[in-house]
């Protein structure tokens, strides 16, 4: 159940929200997931639905409602805030563009960037969705993903399970002309308090400038930046 507030009805309502967040859920499964009596679970779910915190799908099951999305959009993102401090220093140290990617199923989303202002650079727009089947950021996120995601990615990836094992062993990944011709990159994992990998921080730029073994140049800086981001979460 996690933390309790001491306010019984609030804690039970949060139980219901958590259960519905995992997947669309009917009343019977809601009772099983929360351990609440049928009448209590139903009363709380309907009340949360009235306030827009739950909604119903076409099968009548409860799922997250529109108010939750609005609240989440308004909340500050601690990883984005941490990136604003860490990325410019990494950019200045490496002289290359830097990004932070967060996994989202079979894609990764660029949630923070710090680009060079002049010269030849590899620019990834903020909010861009990139595939998980190529690139150093994809390797990092896949290396620590759950087995189901790993299998799905590896079925289409330019890299193998052996590559992922090496990424886990050394703590960073590199790529040369995998995602885009002429572009090389290095990435390292960003972890949450429990040690789970929640993002990848990357340095990317032209192969002609970074070279074909970019990890030799930038892995130490990437790991240092990833540890700084982790410390701020």
UniProtKB/TrEMBL annotation:
One of its GO terms (molecular function) is DNA binding. GO terms for biological process: negative regulation of DNA-templated transcription. InterPro entries: GAF-like_dom_sf (IPR029016), HTH_MetabolicPath_Reg (IPR050707), Tscrpt_reg_IclR_C (IPR014757), Tscrpt_reg_IclR_N (IPR005471), WH-like_DNA-bd_sf (IPR036388), WH_DNA-bd_sf (IPR036390). Pfam families: HTH_IclR, IclR_C. The keyword DNA-binding applies. Residues 7-66 form the HTH iclR-type domain. It comes from the Bacteria. This is IclR family transcriptional regulator. Keywords: DNA-binding, Transcription, Transcription regulation. Residues 67-233 form the IclR-ED domain.
């Amino acid at each position: 159940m996690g933390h309790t507030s001491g306010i019984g009805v609030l804690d039970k309502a949060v139980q219901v929200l958590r259960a519905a967040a995992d997947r669309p859920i009917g009343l019977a499964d809601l009772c099983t997931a929360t351990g609440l009596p049928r009448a209590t679970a139903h009363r709380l779910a309907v009340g949360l639905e009235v306030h827009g915190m739950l909604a119903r799908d076409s099968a009548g099951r409860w799922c997250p409602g529109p108010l939750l999305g609005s609240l989440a959009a308004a909340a500050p993102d601690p990883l984005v805030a941490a990136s604003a401090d860490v990325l410019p220093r990494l950019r200045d140290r490496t002289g290359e563009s830097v990004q932070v990617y967060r996994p989202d199923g079979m894609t990764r989303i660029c949630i923070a960037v710090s680009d060079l202002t002049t010269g030849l650079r590899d620019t990834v727009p903020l909010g861009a969705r990139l595939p998980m089947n190529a690139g150093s950021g994809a390797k990092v996120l896949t290396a620590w993903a759950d087995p189901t995601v790993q299998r799905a990615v590896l079925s289409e990836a330019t890299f193998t399970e052996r590559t992922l094992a090496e990424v886990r062993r050394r703590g960073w990944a590199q790529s040369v002309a995998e995602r885009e011709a002429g572009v090389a990159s290095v990435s390292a994992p960003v972890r949450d308090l429990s040690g789970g990998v929640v993002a990848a921080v990357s340095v990317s730029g032209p192969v002609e400038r970074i070279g074909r073994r970019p990890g030799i140049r930038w892995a130490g800086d990437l790991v240092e930046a990833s540890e700084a981001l982790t410390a701020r979460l």
